[in-house]
Amino acid sequence: MIYEIAQLPVHAEHADRFRQAFAEVVPLLSRAEGYRGHVLAKGIEMPGIFNLIVRWRSLEDHTPGFETSEDHKVSMRGLQEYLSEEPKVYHLEGGAFGAARELLFHSLHKQAA
User: Fold this and answer.
1) What sign has the CA pseudo-torsion 92, 96, 100, 102?
2) For residue 101, with 0-12 CB atoms within 10 Å meaning exposed, 13-18 middle and 19 or more buried, which class applies?
3) Is this model's pTM higher than 0.90 or not?
4) What's the pLDDT score for residue 94?
5) Fewer CB within 10 Å of terminal CB in the chain, N or C?
6) 65, 33 Cβ separation under 8 angstroms
7) How many C-beta atoms surround the C-beta of residue 103 within 10 A?
């Protein structure tokens, strides 16, 4: 499991339209091979940056998989006019998230006992 982190700089005056446009391209993302879910959230400290976190089965499912697909091209065309600059994208291994979740679960379980 890996996580794609995409920092999407959006023109402040287009934030609401960007959210609408993103909602319209979600079906293209969600049907991609290896897609396992996503979160889109506006930054607090940097409100001009939306953070897209996508969970993928493997790095290959995202790149080259989805990134070279026609669905990705169509998605980016639907969002491009709202972006103030190129997105920054990087990946994380999912193990760190899983370990943190296990620690939290065990901690809560001990407190409840």
Assistant:
1) positive
2) exposed
3) no
4) 81
5) C
6) yes
7) 10
Lowest mean pLDDT among 8-12, 86-90, 95-99: 95-99
One-letter amino acid at 38 equals H
Q: What is the pLDDT of residue 99?
A: 53
pLDDT of residue 111: 47
32 in helix, strand or coil?
A: coil
- CB atoms under 10 Å from CB of 92, counted, come to 13
| Contact predicate 38/85, CB 8 Å | no
> Would you state the structure tokens that stand for residue 84, as one six-digit string?
């103030």
Contacts 24+ apart (CB under 8 A), 15-24: 15/42, 15/47, 15/50, 17/82, 18/50, 18/79, 18/82, 18/83, 21/78, 21/79, 21/82, 22/50, 22/79, 24/78
